[in-house]
Design goal:
Protein name (chain A): Iron complex transport system permease protein
Largest interface: A-B, 31 and 42 residues
Oligomer: heterodimer
Distance between the termini of chain B: 59 Å
Largest sheet of chain A: none
Order of helices and strands of chain A: HHHHHHHHHHHHHH
GO biological process, one term (chain A): siderophore-iron import into cell
Shape of chain A: globular
GO molecular function, one term (chain A): transmembrane transporter activity
Helix content of chain A: over 70%
Helix content of chain B: 25-40%
Strand content of chain B: 25-35%
Number of domains of chain A: 1
CATH topology of the largest domain in chain B: Rossmann fold
Subcellular location (chain A): Cell membrane
CATH architecture of the largest domain in chain B: 3-Layer(aba) Sandwich
Main location (chain A): membrane
Strand content of chain A: under 5%
Distance between the termini of chain A: 39 Å
CATH architecture of chain A: Orthogonal Bundle
CATH superfamily of chain A: ABC transporter involved in vitamin B12 uptake, BtuC
Strand order of the largest sheet of chain B: 6-7-8-3-9-10
Number of helices of chain A: 14
Radius of gyration of chain A: 21 Å
Number of helices of chain B: 10
CATH class of the largest domain in chain B: Alpha Beta
């Protein structure tokens, strides 16, 4: 009798804990929308928030009065940047979350494993060598993408090797980071001051190159990747119990590892090639998500996305308002707000 | 019936199974004993298809272990590895649910949750269901992982030292439940134990391993002798019968009088008093 009472208590507790996690996600969603609207509203020509809201509502089909100038600024300039911030931040958050899951280490992210540095090197090389007849707006992202995927392929090859531990994979990734950073410095060193300046700007990370056509590619890749990740949510949760235990539960660990690594690499390479290097979100977002909803990947993946998206979107707002009229590269701002946050996180965990 | 034929496993230069053959009946608890590093865990991993044997074959009725059909083969198993650390931010219930990995979807089924909770209930841990596994003791984690293995509805259940972190009470809770379910469900149960008395009490069939070889197998009542223990472990033991007629093993420490304190070989035996004084 007593145990049947305990049984139904346990079920309702489980349901309540799921509801709580849905609630956390909805709050984050609202916060993200707020920061998204602020992102659209802020900029060199400070628009009125109400007008921005009207323009946004008009855009999604509501019959609200809207000023044509505001509409043009919102639709063609601000909106693509704001959406890009959300997607890129989300992808970096999820990329970090899955790297940490795969490698069983809270320090792992595509950035710390050298994939971002590889993209940077690829972009720099393309700028240095020239775009080989291609439009520079296509060639540079393409170079970054290819190099990033090459770095990932190297990690990929290592991961297929028998008896390689996640610790060894992380070390290999960090070695890649140093290698590509050195190569990048080399390219900067041998190129002309003007070119060097151009490379530097690319590396800072910037959302200003966002356009509707870029967004289509980035958004499409992200959507497909997210669907595949969510399909494996339970397997990925099982993987975090340890490789041997995951196997004992029937997970084909090497296949799951490779599949997830490929998805993460594809997403990261795509966003990095369009916006440049943006660090810290990949490490910080999943760690916050873990504190808020635990490691049930059904919640952990989407929340890592939402938090990453919020961090980058708010960084985008900050990059515009710190010094009115001046626009700071977003890659710089994220690291600056990311570091104190990171310290808080590390020290907060110390019991 | 799980049948192993002429199994040979070598890792690097270490022989961990040498011409090993045996067969295990459904509804029986089989216990492997043997010294450290002698190939017990390796044998379980080989049966699970995680380590590839150099030669030999493994069957379960008409199914054969091959690399091609590994995932179908593994579906037969509930397997509880030795490592009991659970360093993850999940509730106990969620960890147990993972035992039914293939049935889980984005929305959890009430029936599955009930199944997981009743697995916990049967081993007396229902009250922990909503706790985070990060905050549990090693022994509690071990019980939770046992519940997870049961969730898989196995045909073959393998447990690698399942009571290593458990107190006296939970040792018996786990082993009694295991014995009862093995008989009821007709599982082939195979576990590694270090405690010879637990092995003697719970094994229907005892497999004694040393240096990758199956030294002896059979009913513990028949095969557990002081000579065997001396041969396998190099330890002296006395064996008596407990009130149920099961063998009771009492090991004997090396007497202090045997302590050799001499360097020149003249004084080989000292009386206890002198040894203590020194």
């Amino acid at each position: 009798m007593q145990s049947s009472g305990l049984l139904s208590d346990a079920i309702s507790n489980q349901r309540r804990s799921e509801q709580r996690r849905w609630f956390v996600m909805s709050i984050l969603f609202v916060v993200l929308i707020t920061s998204f609207i602020l992102d659209v509203a802020t900029g060199p020509s400070l628009l009125n928030i109400k007008e921005v809201a009207n323009a946004l509502l008009h855009l999604i089909g509501f019959d609200t009065p809207v000023d044509p100038t505001t509409e043009v600024i919102v639709t063609n300039l601000r909106l693509p940047i704001a959406i890009m911030a959300v997607i890129v931040g989300g992808v970096l958050g999820v990329g970090g979350a899955e790297m940490q899951t795969l490698l069983n280490n809270p320090m792992a992210s595509p950035y710390t494993l050298g994939m971002a540095a590889a993209a940077g090197f690829g972009a720099a090389m393309t700028l240095y060598v020239g775009s080989l007849g291609l439009n520079a707006n296509v060639a540079v992202p393409l170079g970054a993408f290819v190099c990033c995927m090459l770095a990932a392929a190297f990690l990929f090859a290592l991961a297929t090797m028998q008896h390689i531990s996640s610790g060894q994979l992380i070390l290999a990734g960090i070695a890649l980071l140093f290698l590509f950073q050195s190569l990048l410095s080399l390219v900067q060193f041998i190129s002309s001051p003007e070119l060097s300046q151009q490379i530097l700007f690319w590396l800072f990370g910037s959302l200003s190159k966002a356009s509707w056509s870029n967004l289509l590619i980035v958004g499409g890749v992200t959507l497909v990747c997210m669907v595949f990740l969510m399909k494996d949510a339970w397997k990925l949760t099982a993987l975090r119990l340890g490789e041997e235990r995951a196997k004992s539960l029937g997970v084909n660990v090497s296949r799951l590892r490779l599949k997830t690594l490929f998805i993460v690499a594809l997403m990261t390479a795509t966003v990095t090639s369009f916006v440049g290097i943006i660090g810290f979100i990949g490490i910080v977002a999943p760690n916050i998500a873990k504190i808020l909803v635990g490691e049930d990947q059904r919640f952990f993946i989407p929340l890592s996305f939402l938090i990453g998206a919020f961090l980058l979107s708010s960084a985008s707002v900050l990059s515009k308002v710190i010094v009115p009229g001046a626009l700071f590269p977003i890659g710089i701002v994220t690291a600056i707000i990311g570091v104190p946050f990171f310290f808080w996180l590390i020290l907060g965990k110390r019991r | 019936m799980l049948t192993v034929n002429q199994l040979n496993v070598t890792l690097d230069t270490l022989t961990l199974a040498k011409d090993m053959s045996f067969s295990l009946q459904p509804g029986k608890v089989n216990v492997i004993i043997g010294p450290n590093g002698t190939g017990k865990s390796t044998l379980l991993k080989t049966l699970f298809g995680d380590i590839k044997a150099q030669s030999g074959d493994i069957h379960f009725f008409d199914q054969t272990l091959t690399t091609k059909q590994l995932s179908a083969w593994r579906k037969l198993f509930g397997y509880m590895p030795q490592d009991i650390r659970l360093d993850i931010e999940l509730s106990v219930l969620e960890v147990v649910l993972l035992g039914q990995l293939d049935a889980l979807s984005l929305r959890l089924d009430d029936a599955l949750i009930e199944q997981a909770l009743s697995a916990l209930d049967k081993i007396g841990l229902l009250h922990l269901a909503n706790r985070s596994v990060n905050k549990l003791s090693g022994g509690q984690c071990q019980m939770i992982l046992f519940a997870q293995a049961l969730m898989r509805n196995p045909k073959i259940l393998m447990l690698d030292e399942p009571v290593s972190a458990l107190d006296l009470h939970f040792q018996h809770v786990l082993l009694d439940h295991l014995d009862e379910q093995t008989k009821q469900q007709g599982w082939v149960t195979l576990m590694v134990l270090h405690d010879l008395n637990l092995a003697a009490q719970y094994a229907d069939n005892l497999l004694v391993l040393k240096d990758g070889q199956l030294v002896k197998s059979g009913d513990p009542k028949d095969i557990l002798t002081p000579e065997l223990i001396k041969e396998v472990y190099g330890v002296q033991a006395e064996i008596s019968k407990d009130s149920h007629g099961l063998p009771f093993v009492r090991t004997i420490r090396r007497s202090r009088t045997e302590v050799n304190l001499s360097t020149d070989g003249k004084v080989t035996q000292l009386d206890k008093g002198i040894a203590n004084a020194i």
